[in-house]
């Protein structure tokens, strides 16, 4: 897989007024955006999980198992994502601009504590008797809402300040090499989980671009199998746009939705 743009998008670098006056808009360089696609995936997973926790029927054991399982998945997703940023992005930033990642690195420590606390609350809810479940579920829902709110603020800083710092201190080739090293560290099962949340969260153009990148690196059958695993998470309109864009038949009639 040429991972040049997998999990990343290209974004126009905001130019200064002087630069805008000196160069036509089309000449402004496009830069690799590490954060945008994976953060869309995270926001989607966070919101889906939060809504599920909010409507959880704590007297329905199957629903409890499914919802808390989804929460476990979200917490693993958040943990490995912040670890990727700690292991790859922050060292690259610090090597060129000391202190550039300190604020966000500190927030990652807080997030790790919050993730552990949410895991503990979920364990308490699983073990609780019927009478104490409603209060515990409401507490879990509120704590998860605060975690999501904090992450939304955090991701905005990364997508703005951190991207600006990365673009100012690294060439496109360096960013692509860094991004490829990060992707190469992700086990296949985690990659599939990431794509499950990322692909539906992207715009139709981003979605087709990502899957066409992947398509160029895989034989047809494994690619079709991958798309089969992602397709149930797309609605009909999304699939109708995606199928022709990635060279697959539309095959109407499949029941969709996550
Ligand atoms: Fe982060």
UniProtKB/TrEMBL annotation:
CDD domains on file: Hr_FBXL5
GO annotation terms (biological process): intracellular iron ion homeostasis
Superkingdom classification of source: Bacteria
Gene3D superfamilies: nmb1532 protein domain like
Transmembrane feature ranges: none
Pfam families given in the database record: Hemerythrin (PF01814)
InterPro entries: Hemerythrin-like, Hr_FBXL5
Record domain Hemerythrin-like: where: 39-159
Protein name: Hemerythrin-like domain-containing protein
Lineage, uppermost ranks: Bacteria, Pseudomonadati, Pseudomonadota, Betaproteobacteria, Burkholderiales
């Amino acid at each position: 897989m040429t991972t040049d743009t997998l999990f990343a998008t290209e974004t126009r670098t905001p130019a200064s007024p002087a630069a805008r006056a000196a160069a036509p808009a089309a000449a402004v360089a496009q830069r690799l955006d590490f954060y945008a696609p994976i953060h869309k995936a995270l926001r989607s997973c966070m919101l889906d999980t939060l809504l599920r926790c909010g409507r959880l029927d704590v007297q329905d054991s199957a629903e409890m198992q499914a919802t808390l399982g989804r929460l476990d998945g979200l917490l693993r997703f958040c943990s490995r994502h912040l670890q990727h940023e700690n292991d790859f992005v922050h060292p690259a930033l610090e090597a060129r601009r000391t202190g550039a990642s300190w604020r966000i690195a500190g927030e990652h420590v807080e997030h790790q504590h919050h993730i552990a606390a949410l895991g503990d609350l979920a364990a308490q809810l699983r073990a609780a008797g019927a009478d104490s479940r409603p209060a515990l579920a409401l507490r879990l829902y509120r704590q998860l809402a605060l975690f999501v709110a904090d992450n939304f603020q955090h991701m905005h800083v990364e997508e703005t300040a951190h991207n600006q710092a990365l673009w100012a201190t690294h060439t496109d080739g360096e960013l692509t090499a860094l991004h490829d090293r990060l992707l190469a560290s992700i086990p296949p099962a985690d990659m599939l989980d990431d794509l499950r949340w990322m692909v539906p969260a992207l715009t139709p153009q981003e979605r087709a671009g990502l899957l066409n990148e992947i398509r160029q690196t895989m034989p047809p059958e494994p690619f079709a199998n991958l798309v089969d695993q992602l397709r149930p998470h797309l609605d009909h309109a999304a699939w109708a746009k995606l199928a022709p864009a990635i060279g697959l038949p539309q095959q109407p009639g499949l029941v969709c939705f996550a």
